[in-house]
Amino acid sequence: MNVSKADILNPESENAAVKLALAETHVIQETKTFLEQHGVDLSSLDSSGQRRPPRSDRIILVKNIPYGTSATDIRALFEPHGELRRVLVPPAGTLAVVEFVHPDEGRKAFRAVAYRRLGNSIIYLEKGPEGMFIIDEPITDAPASS
Length: 146
Prior knowledge:
By secondary structure, this protein is an alpha+beta fold. 32% of the residues lie in helices and 21% in strands.
Protein backbone atom coordinates (compact mmCIF):
# COMPACT_ATOMS: atom_id res chain seq x y z
CA MET A 1 0.00 0.00 0.00
CA ASN A 2 3.07 2.23 -0.28
CA VAL A 3 2.98 3.03 3.44
CA SER A 4 6.16 2.55 5.42
CA LYS A 5 6.21 0.97 8.87
CA ALA A 6 7.60 4.23 10.19
CA ASP A 7 4.50 6.10 8.99
CA ILE A 8 2.18 3.61 10.67
CA LEU A 9 4.11 3.32 13.93
CA ASN A 10 5.09 6.99 14.24
CA PRO A 11 3.29 8.32 17.35
CA GLU A 12 3.38 11.84 15.91
CA SER A 13 1.64 10.82 12.69
CA GLU A 14 -1.87 12.23 12.49
CA ASN A 15 -3.34 9.30 10.57
CA ALA A 16 -1.55 6.28 12.09
CA ALA A 17 -4.79 4.56 13.16
CA VAL A 18 -6.41 5.25 9.81
CA LYS A 19 -3.39 3.92 7.91
CA LEU A 20 -3.33 0.78 10.04
CA ALA A 21 -7.05 0.19 9.52
CA LEU A 22 -6.67 0.63 5.76
CA ALA A 23 -3.75 -1.81 5.69
CA GLU A 24 -5.74 -4.42 7.67
CA THR A 25 -8.74 -3.99 5.39
CA HIS A 26 -6.53 -4.40 2.33
CA VAL A 27 -4.99 -7.64 3.66
CA ILE A 28 -8.40 -9.09 4.56
CA GLN A 29 -9.89 -8.24 1.16
CA GLU A 30 -6.86 -9.58 -0.70
CA THR A 31 -7.04 -12.85 1.25
CA LYS A 32 -10.79 -13.24 0.64
CA THR A 33 -10.38 -12.60 -3.09
CA PHE A 34 -7.53 -15.11 -3.36
CA LEU A 35 -9.47 -17.83 -1.52
CA GLU A 36 -12.60 -17.26 -3.63
CA GLN A 37 -10.54 -17.45 -6.84
CA HIS A 38 -9.22 -20.82 -5.69
CA GLY A 39 -12.61 -22.36 -5.00
CA VAL A 40 -13.12 -21.66 -1.30
CA ASP A 41 -16.68 -21.02 -0.09
CA LEU A 42 -16.05 -18.16 2.34
CA SER A 43 -19.42 -18.65 4.02
CA SER A 44 -18.14 -22.02 5.29
CA LEU A 45 -15.48 -20.14 7.29
CA ASP A 46 -17.95 -17.72 8.88
CA SER A 47 -17.90 -18.33 12.61
CA SER A 48 -20.78 -15.97 13.40
CA GLY A 49 -23.39 -18.63 12.64
CA GLN A 50 -25.07 -20.45 15.50
CA ARG A 51 -24.04 -23.96 14.46
CA ARG A 52 -20.47 -24.91 13.76
CA PRO A 53 -20.30 -26.95 10.54
CA PRO A 54 -18.83 -30.46 10.70
CA ARG A 55 -15.04 -30.45 10.41
CA SER A 56 -13.07 -32.31 7.76
CA ASP A 57 -10.17 -34.64 8.47
CA ARG A 58 -8.79 -33.81 5.01
CA ILE A 59 -8.69 -29.98 5.23
CA ILE A 60 -6.34 -28.15 7.59
CA LEU A 61 -6.18 -24.39 8.17
CA VAL A 62 -2.61 -23.39 9.06
CA LYS A 63 -2.42 -20.21 11.14
CA ASN A 64 0.31 -17.97 12.54
CA ILE A 65 2.69 -18.65 9.68
CA PRO A 66 5.66 -16.29 9.30
CA TYR A 67 5.56 -13.61 6.63
CA GLY A 68 7.05 -14.81 3.37
CA THR A 69 6.10 -18.47 3.83
CA SER A 70 5.44 -20.01 0.42
CA ALA A 71 3.16 -22.83 -0.66
CA THR A 72 6.34 -24.87 -1.21
CA ASP A 73 7.32 -24.35 2.45
CA ILE A 74 3.87 -25.48 3.61
CA ARG A 75 3.95 -28.45 1.25
CA ALA A 76 7.33 -29.53 2.66
CA LEU A 77 5.89 -29.43 6.17
CA PHE A 78 2.83 -31.59 5.38
CA GLU A 79 3.85 -33.81 2.46
CA PRO A 80 5.80 -36.33 4.58
CA HIS A 81 2.48 -37.27 6.21
CA GLY A 82 0.52 -38.11 3.07
CA GLU A 83 -0.65 -37.21 -0.42
CA LEU A 84 -1.71 -33.58 -0.76
CA ARG A 85 -4.53 -32.53 -3.01
CA ARG A 86 -3.91 -28.78 -2.78
CA VAL A 87 -1.98 -26.16 -0.85
CA LEU A 88 -3.13 -22.53 -0.84
CA VAL A 89 -1.21 -19.57 0.60
CA PRO A 90 -2.80 -16.15 0.00
CA PRO A 91 -0.50 -13.23 -0.97
CA ALA A 92 -0.50 -11.69 2.52
CA GLY A 93 0.60 -15.03 3.97
CA THR A 94 -1.71 -14.74 6.95
CA LEU A 95 -2.78 -18.38 6.77
CA ALA A 96 -2.57 -21.45 4.55
CA VAL A 97 -5.04 -24.14 3.55
CA VAL A 98 -3.86 -27.72 3.09
CA GLU A 99 -6.09 -30.45 1.68
CA PHE A 100 -5.13 -34.12 1.84
CA VAL A 101 -6.43 -36.78 -0.53
CA HIS A 102 -7.10 -39.25 2.30
CA PRO A 103 -8.70 -38.41 5.68
CA ASP A 104 -6.44 -40.75 7.67
CA GLU A 105 -3.36 -38.94 6.33
CA GLY A 106 -4.91 -35.59 7.24
CA ARG A 107 -5.51 -36.77 10.81
CA LYS A 108 -1.94 -38.04 11.06
CA ALA A 109 -0.53 -34.76 9.74
CA PHE A 110 -2.70 -32.71 12.09
CA ARG A 111 -1.26 -34.53 15.12
CA ALA A 112 2.31 -34.41 13.81
CA VAL A 113 2.45 -30.76 12.71
CA ALA A 114 0.33 -28.97 15.35
CA TYR A 115 2.35 -26.46 17.39
CA ARG A 116 5.55 -27.03 15.41
CA ARG A 117 7.97 -24.21 14.81
CA LEU A 118 8.08 -22.74 11.32
CA GLY A 119 10.73 -20.07 11.02
CA ASN A 120 10.32 -17.84 14.06
CA SER A 121 6.67 -18.76 14.69
CA ILE A 122 4.73 -21.59 16.27
CA ILE A 123 2.00 -22.65 13.85
CA TYR A 124 -1.55 -23.37 14.92
CA LEU A 125 -3.82 -25.77 13.08
CA GLU A 126 -7.57 -25.98 12.78
CA LYS A 127 -9.60 -28.56 10.90
CA GLY A 128 -11.36 -26.91 7.98
CA PRO A 129 -15.12 -27.21 7.52
CA GLU A 130 -16.67 -29.89 5.32
CA GLY A 131 -17.78 -28.40 2.01
CA MET A 132 -15.19 -25.63 2.17
CA PHE A 133 -14.29 -26.01 -1.51
CA ILE A 134 -16.77 -25.14 -4.25
CA ILE A 135 -14.36 -26.31 -6.94
CA ASP A 136 -13.46 -29.95 -6.36
CA GLU A 137 -10.59 -30.27 -8.81
CA PRO A 138 -7.09 -30.42 -7.34
CA ILE A 139 -5.05 -27.25 -7.38
CA THR A 140 -1.48 -27.79 -6.24
CA ASP A 141 0.82 -25.09 -4.89
CA ALA A 142 -1.41 -22.21 -5.89
CA PRO A 143 1.04 -19.32 -5.94
CA ALA A 144 0.36 -16.11 -4.13
CA SER A 145 -0.51 -13.56 -6.77
CA SER A 146 1.07 -10.13 -6.62
